[in-house]
Design brief:
Growth Hormone, Chain: A; 2 domains; 74% helix; 419 residues
């Protein structure tokens, strides 16, 4: 494969298409949280079963992320991303059928489609816009936040609309879930012109599987768990925040809007932190502050729920900031693009497996105690571990390996050379 920069015929159209695809990478999941109580009541789901609805996509992310680059190598990036959008659409249709079986099956299928998009979109940016990756990444994260905000904020109004229109073919909550199909449908229409080309992913993505030594690296695991704990906390609140708010006296509409604010606040750090990345060499202090902010905000939500909107903004900001910092650690701790892509793949696979346990554990604790106190205190304890891990994950050292012949015999770190 040539390493020359590929000339994009219509760069503005390509950027719009990329951002539309990005809008699909969270919205189909986040629209579930505000109406989870309605679904649980209608289908008689336990809190643990309800938590599984958020856990399933995360498991799909973990299991299907490693094979996404192989799919792109075989059929091309453009076709692979079209498959991702089609799978998301199919999952939304199945999930909205109204039964327990289709609810869980569709949710899992949506996760598979999102997993493919998660892995391949960054490669598309590197391939077609190599000099604009930081800027486009910031916009990309922002669009993901906007898409998830729209999905969360409109979930309850759409449910109410279905009841006013007396839609009986499917439950009102299913109508609300079905409405997010607008995201992949518009994206598919915009992406169709790209199918005329058949190109492979960037060499960074294509070589993800060639760095198996990272799985024996303590430094790689530090970065992986840092990102995993960040997602662990984030997906707990994506799943359970509306239920917490309703039990503290908020209406379903208010809970839905605040849930939308959570999504939007996760995108805010993209506009604030990315310009600071090049100026602040050692990211550890910033990372610890982010974890402390999350700790204090969750504690605030527990002790002073009347100020939930403040705490939710801070939780969203800390999780969004932790995600960006975690991605920066991938660059800081690696010596070339191939190793960075490999570490990113490892972190995404194992990090999402860790994150998948969050909503399930949180829901189980709530079910056992009939209270939100113990689950929230558990989450604050995770923030403490997250802060301590930041001191190791964010060190300005790179992961190296020593080889004898073709055999890898050591995997260690050394300080990055200062420029």
């Amino acid at each position: 494969m040539s390493h020359s920069i590929r000339k994009v015929a219509h760069p503005a159209l390509m950027i719009i298409s990329i951002l539309l695809i990005a809008s699909n990478l969270r919205a189909p999941i986040t629209g579930l949280g505000p109406i989870l109580e309605f679904i649980s009541h209608d289908l008689h789901l336990s809190p643990t079963q309800a938590g599984m609805l958020t856990t399933l996509p995360l498991l799909a992310f973990a299991l299907f992320s490693p094979i996404s680059s192989g799919l792109a190598r075989k059929i091309g990036l453009e076709s692979s991303l079209m498959i991702a959008l089609t799978v998301i659409s199919l999952g939304i249709i199945i999930r909205s059928s109204g039964s327990i079986a289709t609810l869980f099956l569709g949710t899992c299928i949506i996760g598979i489609g999102i997993a493919i998009g998660n892995v391949l979109l960054p490669s598309l940016l590197k391939r077609d816009f190599p000099t604009q990756v930081p800027t486009l990444t910031a916009i990309y994260v922002l669009v993901m936040g906007i898409g998830s905000t729209i999905s969360s904020s409109t979930a309850i109004p759409l449910l109410n609309l279905a009841e006013k229109l007396h839609i009986t073919a499917i439950p009102s909550w299913a109508f609300s879930l079905a409405s997010v199909i607008i995201f992949p449908v518009v994206s598919i229409l915009m992406w169709l012109p790209q199918l005329s080309t058949h190109t492979r992913p960037s060499v960074d993505t294509a070589d993800i599987d060639s760095h198996s030594y990272l799985w024996r690296s303590a430094a790689a695991w530090q970065v992986t768990i840092f990102l995993g704990l960040n997602s662990f906390i984030m997906y707990i609140f994506i799943s359970w925040l509306p239920s917490i708010l309703v039990d503290n006296g908020y209406t379903e509409n208010q809970a839905g809007y605040i849930h939308g604010i959570l999504q939007l606040s996760t995108a805010m750090p993209a506009l604030i932190l990315i310009p600071l990345m090049a100026k602040i060499k050692d990211k550890r202090t910033m990372s610890v502050i982010i974890a402390i902010l999350s700790f204090s905000s969750i504690l605030g939500l527990l002790l002073m729920p009347e100020h939930a909107i403040v705490w939710v903004i801070c939780i969203g900001f800390s999780c969004g900031g932790g995600f960006i910092l975690g991605l920066s650690f991938v660059g800081i701790r690696t010596h070339d693009a191939h190793q960075a892509a490999a570490l990113s793949g490892m972190a995404q696979c194992m990090g999402y497996l860790l994150a998948a346990s969050g909503p399930l554990i949180f829901g189980s604790l709530h079910e056992m105690t009939a209270s939100w106190s113990l689950p929230l205190l558990m989450t604050t304890s995770v923030c403490v571990v997250w802060a301590l891990l930041a001191l190791y994950a964010g060190r300005p050292q790179i992961i190296i390996r020593t080889q004898t012949g073709n055999d890898i015999i050591i995997d260690n770190t050394h300080p990055r050379h200062q420029s």
